[in-house]
Every structure is written in C-alpha cells, then in structure tokens.
Task: inverse folding
C-alpha cells in the first residue's frame, strides 16, 4: 500500500490488501500497478474520501461495506460524486440505508443514484446475443425498480450517471415521448406530454437528473483536465405530476427545469 493515503487506509487497511480474496477489487489492481497513472488515481480517491471524512460520512458502516465490495465499488463512487456535489452546493448529504442512497434530512429529500455504465447484453428468443437499448434500461431496469421503494411522503429524485445518452433522449423518455407532429402551415413542431411522467404511476417521483460526468471521467488523468474531484454536469427534469415540490436549493444544485412549462 503506497504511503500518504490516510483516507483509503480507513476503509482498506493493510490486512485487507493481504487477503487474496480481494484480488478482483478495482482498488487492489491500482495498488498492484506501478504506473504513475495508478498512483494519480489513488491520490484522487484518497482526496474524495478525505472530503467525506470532513463531512463525517466516511465511517458509515454501509458506505464502508459497499466500497469494499468489488462489484459495488464503482457505483458507490458515483454516489460519493453526487454527495460531494451537494455538499459543495451548501447542502448536508447523509448516507442512507439503501434505499435511498443519499438523504437531505433538512429538505425531506431522498436521492437514489444509479450508474448506467457497462452495456447489458441478453440472448433473444432465437439465441442471438443482443445489446439492450440504454433508454429501455433506464425505464425498465432502473426507474420501475426504484418506484417500488419510494416513500411517497418525501421528495424523491433519481440521479443517473450515464455515458452516451443525450439530454434530448431524456426529454423524450420522461416528458414528450419521441412522437411529434408538424403544423403543415407554420412548420412548427408540436410535441405532446406523453412521456413516462404523463402517467400517475410516477407521481411519487419528483424529478430525474442526468449526470454527464460520472466516475470514469474524473478518475482518468488524461480526461480530467481542469475538473476538480466531485465536479459534474447535472441536468434534471421536473415531473409535472409530482406529489411533492422539489426544494429550490435542490433544483439549483441539479439544474432541474420544468420542461413542460418552458415548452408552453
């Protein structure tokens, strides 16, 4: 274990690295790698954990368990990414008991964070391997599952760390759908409120947020440029049928807009 990484050592003591059962963990590989890029990555991770320590979150038992899990490590860092962004915006994120991932107690807000990273493949009825469409995965694999666990008495948000999905696709899925008409006289594009948010089944979900710069970007030293750890580009969509109003501080932090109101 390299020296001067005090915050990593809180979660991953020397004895953890001595256990070969942890050899598949991403951090294990970074420590074993002698390249300078791996050391930079470790320093970035240690810095992020240090910021969590200042917030009093680092010693959370659930957080520690998720970070030590080889399959949950990357997803957990996406959650850390969101928590640090909220802290930078002057809010007080707390680690939830999954679910939700993050709680803002002072604003009655629960935030579920999902990382849509690696492509998902399945075999179709003919035995052919096909890659699932990202928008289908967002709707079927994420949103529908999250809905089952929402507390309808609180403000509920989903933050999605995505790669290769445009914000216009988000608009189509949640607000307008991808169907539209063109006024033959004025050539004006007419879009109707027919996305997922048009259904009352989603009214417990106050907003969805797209995070365009998830963990992989800032961890990669060749792509990080002038980004600070914890920085990200957030854009959100307000649910017109929401039961609970999104607090202004949350809306500002995530750049959440009422697309239906602005469209009208």
Result:
């Amino acid at each position: 274990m390299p020296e001067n990484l005090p915050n990593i050592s809180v979660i991953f003591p020397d004895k953890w690295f001595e256990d070969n059962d942890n050899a598949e963990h991403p951090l294990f590989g970074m420590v074993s790698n002698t390249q300078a890029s791996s050391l930079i990555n470790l320093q970035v991770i240690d810095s992020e954990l240090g910021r969590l320590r200042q917030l009093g979150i680092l010693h959370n038992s659930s957080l520690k368990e998720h970070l030590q899990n080889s399959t949950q490590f990357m997803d957990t860092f996406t959650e850390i990414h969101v928590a640090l962004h909220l802290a930078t915006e002057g809010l007080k994120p707390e680690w939830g008991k999954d679910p939700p991932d993050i709680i803002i107690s002072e604003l009655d807000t629960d935030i579920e964070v999902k990382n849509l990273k690696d492509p998902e493949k399945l075999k179709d009825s003919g035995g052919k391997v096909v890659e699932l469409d990202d928008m289908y995965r967002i709707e079927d694999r994420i949103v529908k599952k999250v809905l089952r666990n929402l507390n309808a008495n609180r403000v509920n948000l989903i933050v999605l760390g995505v790669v290769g999905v445009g914000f216009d696709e988000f608009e189509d899925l949640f607000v307008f759908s991808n169907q539209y008409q063109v006024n033959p006289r004025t050539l004006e594009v007419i879009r109707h409120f027919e996305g997922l948010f048009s259904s009352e089944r989603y009214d417990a979900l106050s907003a969805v947020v797209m995070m365009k710069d998830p963990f992989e970007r800032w961890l990669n030293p060749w792509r990080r440029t002038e980004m600070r750890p914890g920085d990200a580009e957030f854009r959100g969509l307000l649910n017109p049928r929401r039961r609970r109003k999104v607090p202004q501080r949350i809306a500002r932090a995530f750049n959440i807009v009422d697309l239906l109101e602005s469209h009208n």
Notes: Residues 77-263 form one domain. Residues 36-55 form the longest helix (20 residues).
